[in-house]
Amino acid sequence: MTRDEALALAATKWWERATDRQIAEFQLTEPRLCMPFGLFHEAVEKCLGRGVQTIELGMDRDNLVRELLGERKPPTLQEIIGLFPDHMNVMVIGGGDA
User: Fold this and answer.
1) Would the CA dihedral through 54, 14, 66, 31 be positive or negative?
2) What is the share, in percent, of the chain residues with pLDDT greater than 70?
3) What whole-number distance in Å separates Cα of residue 4 and Cα of residue 6?
4) Which residues of 64-86 are buried (b: 16+ CB within 10 A; e: fewer)?
5) pLDDT of 77 higher than 80
6) Could you give the CA distance from residue 20 to residue 81 in angstroms, rounded to a whole number?
7) How far is residue 64's CA from residue 6's CA, in Å, rounded to a whole number?
């Protein structure tokens, strides 16, 4: 889809007539965003029944599609952390009693 086609589709507000599943399936397989990002993110979370990190939507769409189709389990925290580029330092600190 071209940029102009994506903008034209967005102008129709097609998502207002679509189910969460239709939104998730379409937008996960279309590289150009054709709707408000927040609505897309929410639809994917509802369909998968879990919180979806923003980085997954940008860097792991193929696995999200596979999860949506029941072909894959949700990623582990380590797999999500692994999506970050090497130049980004990610630190997870567990809480204690202090």
Assistant:
1) negative
2) 91
3) 5
4) beebbeeeeeebeeeebeebeee
5) yes
6) 26
7) 21
pLDDT at site 38: 97
Residue 84 has pLDDT above 60, yes or no: yes
Rounded Cα gap, residues 50 and 41, in angstroms: 11
Residues 82 and 1: their CA atoms lie apart, in Å, by 29
**Residue listed under structure tokens 């129709």:** 12
Per-residue pLDDT averaged across 25-47, rounded?
A: 97
Alpha helix segments (H runs only) across 3-73: 3-11, 20-29, 37-48, 54-59, 61-68
Spatial separation of the C-alpha atoms in residues 82 and 87, rounded to whole Å: 12
* CA 41 to the chain's CA centroid: 6
